[in-house]
Amino acid sequence: MARDAARPLSARRGGAGWDARWLIMGDDDDDDEAVDPDAALQAFITGHRAPFQASAYEDVWIEAESDGNSWTVAYTHQGWLHWMSHDQG
Q: pTM to 2 decimals?
């Protein structure tokens, strides 16, 4: 997994993190300006984490090839690394 600089997704417009916006926001959000990407990322983590994983994040890495069918997200919280992954098969 390529590490992107630890900064909010909103700061990555046009860069590698831009495609990740579609993953965390879904395709129902046509107006990119209406949805805060950091709030969408928080909702994505909360919705996909295991019960033992933290719902908050500090640094986040999204695998560059992630899409709706296969994705990997890693994040840190209070010194712990949390890993989430999904593969449609």
A: 0.67
